[in-house]
């Protein structure tokens, strides 16, 4: 409050009070926070790490490459380059790893399947539009890997051990020129049958993997 004196005619003093109000103006306040370049870079890196699409492509490529190499390259080259006992030892060491990858990788591929960067999940995989081109082939690959790992591989290993014992009794290796004993002929036939079934199951797995790859290629932008 401020007082001002006004002088008129004569010696009369008139006092008049005036209330002066001051309105303070302040610049507009921007409530939206701004991110520093470091924060933006960190958020971008986190979003890139959480994106399932790179993991999906890498896991699928690893699955297809492993199957193709073992089925058409590694096995044939090893069979031609190594003596039969060394070849059998190599395959016995490789098959558990191969069948484990054949079982685990399609699970990773299924878990990282996405639409627009959003993971499908179990409900999305079971949706009608994804059953035939995603769920079915990936399930086929995983199941064939399990069958080879826990059913056919033990059968093959058991027949190989039986043939080894029979070789000791016959004094002749199973792959030597004929003639062979009846027991060895039966074991060779059994081994060929089990090995053939295992190869067929592996081929079904490879076809299912390629089948999914064709469906995947149609979704790439």
From TrEMBL:
GO terms for cellular component: membrane. The keyword Transmembrane applies. It is found in: Membrane. Keywords: Membrane, Transmembrane, Transmembrane helix. Residues 58-165 form the TMEM205-like domain. InterPro entries: TMEM205-like (IPR025423), Xanthocillin_Biosynth-Assoc (IPR053009). It holds the Pfam family DUF4149. The chain crosses the membrane at residues 57-82, 94-114, 134-155, 194-214. This is TMEM205-like domain-containing protein.
């Amino acid at each position: 409050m401020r007082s001002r004196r006004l002088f008129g005619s004569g010696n009369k003093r008139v006092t008049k009070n005036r209330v002066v109000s001051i309105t303070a103006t302040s610049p507009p306040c921007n409530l939206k926070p701004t991110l520093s370049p470091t924060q933006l870079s960190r958020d971008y890196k986190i979003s890139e790490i959480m994106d399932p699409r790179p993991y999906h492509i890498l896991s699928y490529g690893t699955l297809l490459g492993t199957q193709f190499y073992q089925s058409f390259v590694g096995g044939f080259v090893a069979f031609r380059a190594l003596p039969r006992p060394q070849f059998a030892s190599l395959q016995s060491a490789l098959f558990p790893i191969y069948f484990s990858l054949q079982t685990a990788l399609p699970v990773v591929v299924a878990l990282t399947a996405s639409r627009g960067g959003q993971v499908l999940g179990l409900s999305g995989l079971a949706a009608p539009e994804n059953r035939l081109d995603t769920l079915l082939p990936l399930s086929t690959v995983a199941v064939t890997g399990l069958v080879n790992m826990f059913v056919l591989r033990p059968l093959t290993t058991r027949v190989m051990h039986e043939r080894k014992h029979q070789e000791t009794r016959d004094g002749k290796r199973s792959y030597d020129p004929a003639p062979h004993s009846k027991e060895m002929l039966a074991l060779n036939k059994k081994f060929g049958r089990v090995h053939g079934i295992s190869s067929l199951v592996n081929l079904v797995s490879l076809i299912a993997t390629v089948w999914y790859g064709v469906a995947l290629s149609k979704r790439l932008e």
